[in-house]
Design brief:
Elements: H1 9-22, H2 30-45, E1 51-61, E2 69-73, E3 76-78, E4 82-83, E5 95-102, E6 116-122, E7 125-127, H3 128-131, E8 132-134, E9 143-145, H4 147-154, H5 158-163, E10 168-174, H6 178-181, E11 197-200, H7 202-213, E12 217-222, E13 225-239, E14 246-253, H8 264-275, E15 283-289, H9 295-298, H10 305-311, E16 324-332, E17 337-342, E18 347-354, E19 359-361, H11 364-370, E20 384-387, H12 397-401, E21 406-410, H13 430-449, H14 463-482
Parallel strand pairs: 5-6, 6-10, 10-11, 14-15, 14-16, 16-21, 19-20
Antiparallel strand pairs: 1-13, 2-3, 2-12, 4-11, 5-12, 7-9, 8-20, 13-15, 17-18, 19-21
Length: about 475
C-alpha cells in the first residue's frame, strides 16, 4: 500500500524536547497547564475554534524538598522509592510511631491502630490472556508485567487503614528491582485517602520489614500539600467535514509523569495539521482530555474521556440532531523504548529497542483496516489486539464502552508511570514515533474514506468470559499474596 508524505520528524522532536524540559505534568500543575495551553494555541494557529471544559478539584502535591519524603529508623535513614499519590500528608516533622507488620494475605488493619503499618506487595506477572484478547490464536502463553498492575491490584487498602486508626502505611515492594520502583506514581486512580503512605523496595524494604518485626519505632515524613480550588481544562476542536453528521474522534490526554506518559498530543496535532490541509468527509473532533492522572476529580465512571463524551453527546451519540461518531483513534505513549528487569539479580535497565506496541482494534473489520497500514517499528512480534475480558487500557476505553469502532495505541513499558525530573532525556525513539504518527495519519484517511458499515460492530465481552477471567485473576492474586515470604 502506498503511504502518504512523511510527517515532520523535526517538529515531533522539538515537541518532545519541550516535554522533557517541563518534566512531570501532574494534573493541575503549572507544567500540565503549559501543555494544555500550547495545544490550544496550536488549534488557533490552524484556524480551529478552541472549546474548553473546566474542572475544579483539590490537588495533592508531592513534597518539594528532598527531605520531605523519608523514613527514619533507629539505625538510620531509609530511601523511599516513591509516595503513594493522594494518600495523605504528615507536615515537615512527620509522624513517629511503632512499626507493625501486617500479613499481606489478610491484613488486620486494627492491629496497627495508632501505629505505622508495614505491608508487603508482590510485583506480579499476569497472563496476557487476562489483559488482552487476540484476533487470531494466542501465539504463546506469555505474561505481562507492569508496576501499574501490581500497585492497583495488590496495593494497600488505605481506606480500611484510615478507618482502623492507622497513622501511616509503608508498602514494601517484593520482586521488583529498586531502580524500577523508584519514582513510580502509583496507584493513580484512587481518591484522596487522608492517610500518608509510601513505597520502599530492595534492601530498604528488608530493613523496614525487619524493624517492624522487632517492634521498632520509625519516623515517616510525607510533607505533601493540598491545593483546593485547582482548575484544569480539557481542550478540543473540530475540523469540519463535508458531511458533518458523521464524526471521527481523535483523543489523547495532557497530564503525565514523563515524556512517554504523555506525548500523545504530538501525534494528535500532526493529524490536526493534516486535517486542515485538505477536505475530508467526516468532521474530525480532536480532544485533549485532562484528568487521566486524577480520574476521581473528573470522572464518575471510566477513564477521563468518559466525562467529555457525557458532556458532548452531540459530537458522537447519533440520536436526533446529534452527529454520530463512526470511528475513533486514541493516541498514547508514542515512540516508547523498552526496559529489562532481572528480578533474581534485582537489576533494571533501559533498552535501545522499541517496546512492543499494545495496539487495540475493537472490531474485526477495523483490525483488517489497520493491519496493512500499520508500520513495523522493529519491536519483534506485532499483534493488533482486541480488548481483554476484563479491561481496555487507556483513554480508548470510553470509546470501546460506547461501542465506537476504534484503534488505540497504549504501549506500556514498566517505567510508564515513573516520575522523571525536568530536562531528563525521555526514553523515546523519534523515528519510531514518526512511523507511528504516519500510521495514524494513514489510518485517519482510510477511516474517512470508508463507508461506516465496513467498520463492523465493536466486540463485546460476554458475562461468562468476564466472570471466568475475574475468577482466574482472583486466584492468581491470592496465590501471589500467599507466596510473600518474610525477609
Amino acid at each position: 500500500m502506498t503511504h502518504g508524505q512523511s510527517v515532520d520528524r523535526d517538529l515531533l522532536q522539538s515537541g518532545q524536547q519541550r516535554l522533557d524540559a517541563l518534566g512531570p505534568r501532574l494534573t493541575g500543575t503549572d507544567a500540565h497547564h503549559a501543555v494544555v495551553e500550547e495545544v490550544a494555541r496550536e488549534f488557533v494557529d490552524l484556524g480551529l475554534e478552541v472549546h474548553r471544559d473546566s474542572h475544579t478539584f483539590e490537588r495533592w502535591d508531592l513534597p518539594q524538598r528532598a527531605d520531605g519524603l523519608r523514613i527514619e529508623l533507629p539505625t538510620g535513614p531509609v530511601r523511599v522509592s516513591s509516595a503513594f499519590p493522594y494518600s495523605g500528608l504528615t507536615g515537615p516533622a512527620g509522624i513517629t510511631a511503632r512499626l507493625v507488620y501486617l500479613n499481606a494475605k489478610r491484613p488486620s488493619w486494627s492491629k496497627a491502630k495508632g501505629a505505622i503499618a508495614v505491608i508487603e506487595v508482590p510485583h506480579v506477572d499476569l497472563p496476557r490472556s487476562l489483559l488482552v484478547s487476540e484476533w487470531g490464536p494466542m501465539v504463546t502463553d506469555e505474561t505481562l508485567r507492569n508496576p501499574v498492575l501490581s500497585a492497583t491490584l495488590l496495593g494497600p487498602k488505605l481506606e480500611k487503614a484510615r478507618k482502623s486508626g492507622v497513622l501511616g502505611v509503608i508498602a514494601v515492594w517484593r520482586g521488583i528491582a529498586p531502580d524500577n520502583a523508584l519514582g513510580q506514581y502509583l496507584p493513580f486512580t484512587q481518591p484522596y485517602h487522608d492517610i500518608p503512605a509510601v513505597w520502599v523496595a530492595g534492601d530498604e524494604g528488608a530493613q523496614v520489614v525487619a524493624a517492624a518485626h522487632s517492634g521498632q519505632q520509625a519516623t515517616l515524613v510525607l510533607d505533601a500539600t493540598l491545593h483546593p480550588g485547582t482548575t484544569t481544562d480539557t481542550v478540543w476542536a473540530v475540523s469540519p467535514g463535508t458531511s458533518p453528521s458523521e464524526t471521527i474522534l481523535v483523543i489523547t490526554h495532557s497530564d503525565g509523569t514523563n515524556g512517554v506518559e504523555e506525548n500523545g498530543h504530538l501525534g494528535m496535532m500532526e493529524l490536526a495539521r493534516h486535517a486542515v490541509t485538505q477536505p475530508h468527509r467526516r468532521s474530525y473532533v480532536f480532544v485533549l482530555t485532562t484528568g487521566h492522572l486524577r480520574i476521581p476529580a473528573v470522572s464518575e465512571h471510566g477513564q477521563a474521556t468518559s466525562t467529555w463524551l457525557e458532556a458532548h453527546p452531540d459530537m458522537w451519540k447519533g440520536e436526533s440532531g446529534q452527529a454520530r461518531a463512526v470511528a475513533g483513534i486514541a493516541i498514547e505513549h508514542l515512540g516508547a523504548l523498552g526496559d529489562t528487569e532481572d528480578t533474581v539479580l534485582g537489576t533494571y535497565t533501559l533498552d535501545a529497542t522499541p517496546e512492543p506496541e499494545l495496539l487495540y482494534a475493537t472490531s474485526r473489520e477495523v483490525h483488517d483496516i489497520v493491519a496493512p497500514l500499520w508500520r513495523d517499528i522493529g519491536s519483534g512480534d506485532r499483534r493488533i489486539v482486541a480488548p481483554g475480558p476484563v479491561i481496555h487500557f487507556g483513554e480508548g476505553e470510553p470509546l470501546f464502552e460506547r461501542k465506537i469502532p476504534a484503534v488505540a495505541l497504549v504501549t506500556a513499558p514498566q517505567y510508564l508511570l515513573a516520575l522523571r525530573e525536568p530536562d531528563t532525556a525521555t526514553h523515546v525513539d523519534i523515528d519510531v514515533m514518526a512511523q507511528q504518527v504516519q500510521s495514524f495519519r494513514d489510518l485517519l484517511d482510510a477511516l474517512d474514506a470508508t463507508d461506516s458499515a465496513a467498520f463492523g460492530s465493536v466486540v463485546g465481552r460476554t458475562v461468562f468470559a468476564k466472570f471466568s477471567a475475574l475468577l482466574k485473576l482472583m486466584q492468581i492474586l491470592k496465590k501471589a499474596k500467599t507466596a510473600v515470604r518474610l525477609y
